[in-house]
Amino acid sequence: MTPFAGFGEGAVEFFDGLAADNSKAYWTDQRAVYERDVKAPMQALLAECEAEFGPGKIFRPYRDVRFSADKTPYKTHCGATAGPFYVQVGPDGLLAAGGYYGMSPDQVSRFRTAVDDARRGEDLVKRVAALADAGVEIRGEQLKTRPKGVAPDHPRLDLLRHKGLYGGRTWEPDDALHGPETLKRVTSTWRMLQPLVEWLADHVGPSQMPRR
Fold it and tell me: CATH assignment of 11-203, given 3.30.930, 3.80.10, 2.60.40, 3.30.420?
């Protein structure tokens, strides 16, 4: 495979157009741009990352509209994963992230047990603080109130509210998006996120709930 050299010059413009005209007609007319400037570069990026982060997978460009009021058929970004790591390109530029975007009920239970434990919980606090100091934004769905049974003065209440926990960095569209610097942005961010990913793997792990 050709080494990653950046996303194509038409990538951002393609997604801007798709946001304005999210139709099969636009997709069909512009599909060659997507394949050349978005999908092929994403495949090359994942291939470059595979030795260190494992095999990657690009998400399908089609939205699941079965249970959504929004029936627009196409995603207005291209996202891909490599294990617990994520990369996305779209009209807003580049996102590199890692962690657990959403946790199933059994994962949430294990997560809260670990955060409640003083040793493991404070370890996570330090890892999250180090990421924030390095410019990584800590994200993840949170309860608006405290979990049932948790004291209002719990020292790690903010973390206990999380139902997903991940970190990410974003870059607006710029010249670097179309060059090899993008690979450095992604890999450096994923490396920074390794301590968070390792904590989650050690204390939460994959869901054990049966798939429907």
Answer: 3.30.930
Tokens linked to 182? 């993008």
Q: How far apart are CA 74 and CA 87, in angstroms?
A: 18
For 150-188, what is each residue's pLDDT tens digit?
999 999 999 999 999 999 999 999 999 999 999 999 999
Short-list 178, 210, 1, CA closest to 106: 210
Cβ(107)–Cβ(100) under 8 Å?
yes
Between CA 194 and CA 202 the distance in angstroms is 12
DSSP states of 61-99: SB---TT-S----B-SSEEEEETTEEEEEETTEEEEEEE
Per-residue pLDDT tens over the stretch 16-47 = 999 999 999 999 999 999 999 999 999 999 99
